[in-house]
Amino acid sequence: MITARAAASFEPVGRSVASARSFVRDTLQGWGFADIVDDAVVLTSELVTNAVVHAGTSADVLCLRSDEGVRIEVADRYPEREIPLQGAAINMGNPDREGGRGLQLCAALAGRWGVEYTPTHKTVWFRLDLPARTVGTRAAGPALPADLLPLADSRVRVAVVQVDRTGHISAWNDDAEELFGYPAEQVTGKPLTDLAAWPHTPGTSTGIAEALQLSRWEGSYGIRDAAGRVAPVYASHLRVRDTGGEPSTVCLLVRDHERAVLQTPLRVPASDTSSGSEGQSTDPFEVFIGSPAPDDLDGLLQRTVERARDMLDGDSAFLLLATDDETELEVRASTGLPSARQRFARVPVEAGTGRYGSARMPAVHDDLTAVSGAVPLLNGTGMRSVVTVPLKVEGRLTGSLGVAAEAPGRYSNEEALRLQFAADRIALAVESARLGELERLRRGSLSFLVEASDLLAGTLDRDQTLALMAQMTVPTLATWCAVYTIADQASEPYLSYVLHEDEELIDGIKSLLSKVPPPDPVPTPGARVWTAPAEVAHQAALRTSMRSLGLSGGPSHQITPGIGPTLATASAVGGETVVLPLVARNRVIGMLTLGKPTDEHFRQEILELAEDLSRRAALALDNARLYSERTAISQSLQRSLLPPELPTIEGVEVEVIYRAAGEGNEVGGDFYDVFPIRDGAYGFAIGDVCGTGPNAAAVTGLARHALRLLAREGLSGPTVLERLNSAILDEGARSRFLTLLYGEMRPQEDGSAELKVVCAGHPLPLRLRQDGTVEPAAEPQPLLGVIEDLELYEQTVTLDPGDVLLCVTDGVTERREGTRMLGDDGLADVLTTCTGLTAGAVAARIMRAVERFASDAPSDDMAILAMRVPGPHKD
After folding, report:
1. Nearby residues of 463 by Cβ (< 8 Å), 6 or more positions away
2. Rounded to an integer, what distance in angstroms lies between the CA atom of residue 25 and that of residue 37?
3. For 549-680, where are the alpha helices, taking DSSP H only?
4. What is the pLDDT, as a whole number, of residue 833?
5. Alpha helices in 769-819 (DSSP H)
6. In 3D, which of 304, 309, 302 has the Cα closest to residue 339?
């Protein structure tokens, strides 16, 4: 006879195996079947692994309780999957081999097991019988072969440590001295916390100081021994009092691998109402929940719904928690219901269709089919009768507890009173655990937002900002996300980035979202539900399934390769999807879309955290956009200050290397130009404006364009520079002084080149002859932009075949490393080694020498102009 049942469904993803193990463990412990929990968890783990990992389908797990034991069924949607045949003798073979291991374990561990088929499902079931207990014992285990007994040393040492009410050690036995190396006199009077290394026991949040105050505690931690090493121990604590009423805690400790000596099988008496020690009555809370009570909110809520279901012999139970304003209830725990679909779903409290009208007072519904929508949580579950009661703390609604059954008319006011009595016992504990969880979430949220702000502030690249937004939300806040951007108010939202925790699904989600009109760019803050992706996913999955069954014409095998990805994509986006606006500077610049897989919901705290993140991300994205726009404008303007391509001069090689100082600068205070003046004559210039950056670049543009205009008017070199000097002075406060080397070059018929140069305060040009000698090719004259009346003159230089003229700015000659400077002499020494090189090779060798002279990045603009007259060709 089946007395209770619990069911859950798990998606075809790897993490579902762990979820299934937790579901079975919690269910069986709630039923008081702790003796068979381990076997049931092992078998369930293997069978669910076969379904969700190897078969690639979802798994349905059903637990059925009876007086003799428990039956567990694991169903998948792959009936064609081969079942390994078991021979006459059971041979487990290699334990690392996965094929058929689940069925072999069923044969080895289960009392009975089998496989059942339908056209769409395959179900593997097993039954575990309760072990017979010896009368008068608290717990007993079967006789085991010697090789299966727990491993221990030849002599098991049990340290006995007594700790007074203040946490200080008052007693330390010989085994404790042997295990940890401290004599009793060395540790007596010291706090136990000085020796305990406390790595929180998984599933608890209790520290050593808190554990010492509990009436009973078991678990693992470490003790630092006399050598400074941490010795893992398993401990059993018992709180006692002496004849004078003084409390203390007796701690029994063994090595962790010998925990079987102390470890007590978890037994949870569901109806033990006997009085406790010292004649005091048992706490009604523990009567309902059992002892020890879970110290985490989810564990407490799950234990509550299981106890409530068992107490009223129901088929399912659920618990909802109220929001702070008591206007909505959020599903937090259920049993016997598809919990994955219901968890974190929210319903309004006030009366009306689809609302939870019975939340504020006890209510009994004999038949839900007669009152449609009275309990929205149970719609479509097959439950007919239900009793619900409120959880209240100091008159404030904090939640609602309900038990339902598949048969109508199962409950009366008597059951409602019993359930209300239980709800009153646990309401305060639930609210306390909820507030503790909220505090932890707030601390975690603050840490998350601080880290997110740092990451977003660390880049001004738009694409990197989009990637960071997505990577911070997946999987922390959502299973998948999509970022839409809006270029301007007249533009439509554009899908810019998609991310899923499973990278193989990203392309499918992109394809699906491209077929869905983007969400409306509404500036209203907060998350709003967007149903379009789930609807399109459902339709696509339906069409794919129909094609796979051959219902739309054509051979089904031609469609088969597309079935898997389509159905996987539909499942990935089939849950709740919300949209948060990205608002920066009072303008919607995009939307952040967060999604869950099929039938999952967001909890309110996650949505609030996502809203905070969206505000920070929007500002970061807008800053990146503005930076990109301004950088593009700056680069465009800077490029306009650079000369176009160098002209091809017959009989003369020309090469330029230019480096502007500062990040993002393409033009600084140094400039160069080579341009035709008239037939057979070319102008060249290299100059240096005082300073670097945009202000210097402004004068650079003035100088370069003025030189071209004046030179093409037929003016002589000195006249060109004198008029440029006047133009610079006319700039007033914006003017800057300028050093400039300007010349005109005319190739000659004999293969040489005649140059007329004016050196206005600029580093002198150097001439390299074929014999390797280097000499200045001009004399220094006053710089520009300082005085009004300049008297400049030009000098004539003839470059013979093979000669090189090198012109540089002071960023080259003033290159420093500590107190050393390259200088004019250093530059001349490098140039001496360039005999026979082309103009390009000369410029490159000079630049390499400058870069290698110092390890730091150059702090000044640099320009190198090399001109060479090729020597005669040799046949």
Report:
1. none
2. 6
3. 563-572, 604-641
4. 92
5. 810-813
6. 302
Pick the closest to residue 321 from 374, 270, 377, 283 (CA basis): 377
Q: Please name the residue that has the structure tokens 């017979």.
A: 132
**Above 60 in pLDDT, residue 135?**
no
First to last CA, the chain: 111
DSSP character for 517?
A: P
- Flag whether pLDDT at 47 surpasses 60: yes
Please, where are the H alpha helices in 458-514? 462-473, 506-514
Residue 786 CB neighbours (<10 A): 15
Query: Looking up tokens 């003084």, which residue turns up?
Result: 246
Which DSSP state fits 868? E
Q: Which two tokens stand for residue 202?
A: 């998984």
Q: Label residue 288 by pLDDT band (50, 70, 90).
A: low
Helix/strand/coil percent split, the chain, to 5: 35, 25, 40
Mean pLDDT of 390-402: 85
Residue carrying structure tokens 């579901």 = 23
The number of residues in the chain equals: 875
How much is the pLDDT for 96?
A: 38
If phi > 0 it is left, if psi is from -120 to 50 it is alpha, else beta; for residue 474 that is beta
- Name the H helices within 127-283: 174-180, 184-187, 208-211
Looking at residue 261, its pLDDT comes to 86
Are 560 and 548 in contact by the 8 Å Cβ rule? The answer is yes
Integer Cα distance of 701 and 669 in angstroms:
10
Judge whether 321 and 350 are in contact, CB under 8 Å. Answer: no
Before 525, cis peptide (omega within 30)? Answer: no
Question: At 509, is the secondary structure helix, strand, or coil?
Answer: helix
Local structure of residue 646 (DSSP, 8 states): P
Residue 107 to residues 76, 80, 114, 851, 858, Cα–Cα distance (Å): 20, 21, 9, 76, 77
Q: Give residue 272's pLDDT.
A: 39
Strand-pairing partners, residue 160, are 252
Residue 70 near residue 35 (C-beta atoms within 8 A) = no
**419 phi and psi, to 5 degrees?**
-70, -35
Q: Give the residue among 1, 22, 31, 27 at the shortest CA–CA distance from 311.
A: 31
In this structure, the number of other CB atoms found within 10 A of the CB of residue 49 comes to 20
| pLDDT tens-place string over residues 484-537 | 988 877 788 888 888 888 888 888 888 888 888 888 888 888 888 888 887 777
The token duo for 727 is 């133009």
* 88: confidence class by pLDDT, cuts 50, 70, 90: very low
Percent above pLDDT 90 for the chain: 18
- Name the CA radius of gyration of the chain, rounded: 42
For residue 402, give every residue at least 6 positions away whose Cβ sits within 8 Å of its Cβ, in sequence order, or none: 317, 318, 319, 375, 377, 386, 387, 388, 389
Give 770-799 pLDDT, tens digit per residue: 889 999 999 999 999 888 888 899 999 999
* % the chain with pLDDT above 70: 81
Taking the C-alpha atoms of residue 762 and residue 755, their distance in angstroms, rounded to an integer, is 17
Cβ(741)–Cβ(867) below 8 Å: no
- Per the model's pLDDT, the better-predicted residue between 601 and 341 turns out to be 601
Look over the chain and give the mean of its residue pLDDT values, rounded to a whole number: 79
For residue 582, give both structure tokens: 């990205």
The backbone torsions φ and ψ at residue 745, rounded to the nearest 5 degrees and listed phi first, read: -125, 140
DSSP 671-694: EEEEEEEETTEEEEEEEEESS-HH
Give the single-character DSSP code of 763.
P
pLDDT value for 199 = 56
Residue that the structure tokens 């007796």 belong to: 250
Token duo for residue 195: 């020796």
Mean pLDDT of all residues in 100-110: 71
In 10 A of CB 568, how many CB atoms? 18
Whether residue 455 has pLDDT greater than 70: yes
Q: Name the more confident of 262 and 741.
A: 741
